[in-house]
Design brief:
Length: 269
Amino acid sequence: MSTVGTAFEKAAAENRAVLIGYLPAGFPSVDGAITAALVMAEAGADIIEIGLPYSDPLMDGPVIQEAVHRALIGGTRVADVLRTVEAVAGAGVAALIMTYWNPVDRYGVDAFARDLAAAGGSGLITPDLTPEEAGPWLAAASEYKLDPVFLVAPSSSDERIALITSVSGGFVYAASLMGTTGIRDLVGAEAAVLVSRVRQHTSLPVAVGLGVKDGQQAAQVASFADGVIVGTAFVQRLLAADDYEAGLQGIRDLTAELAAGVRSGRQAD
């Protein structure tokens, strides 16, 4: 079982959902991003997604786009992303890379899988990679024992969900709303419906992402999903802070709030 699978198994034994936090590598600097990720891990995140900065992040909303832009301007490279993974994995927390497919393809699929595994990474979340085009990645993921995490959306047909879940590993990423990432005021009913539909096709855990901003929403999602994914709210804490130390404190406080939320949500069921 991968470290991702272990995190979900541990949470299930504690009758709670998993908290998955996202931060892009290289923002506000490579070392600054590593410290922020470690603060998130210390404060209660079970799994951390490390974003690989990319020049055309189609799924990302303005907050994450701004952070990624700054990371690219700062010269962040794949080696820096892998160093971030290594630091998080070294702290005993499962680390995944969230990446668009082009950077992996340019790096070399087998080489990327090899280097990710060597860094202690658990797998890849690939929002723009379809199962039909994923053959080389699935082969490399199998060879290096990495989790291939794919996304489903409310618009996905049952046939499509069956296909996606058949090639997924670790967990299934349920994008609860159509459109780009960003904070939402409400968690829509579509999320619970989508999780239920996915569970008809797989025994893998299902984690919901796109929009959770606070502990109350985390508790709501945790009442029906196996994992709660939070990205924009974390990045916003760093972007909006008066200085880096204040941003770290914001990361710490939000992680603790969300960690409490994923626990209360399941117990309130």
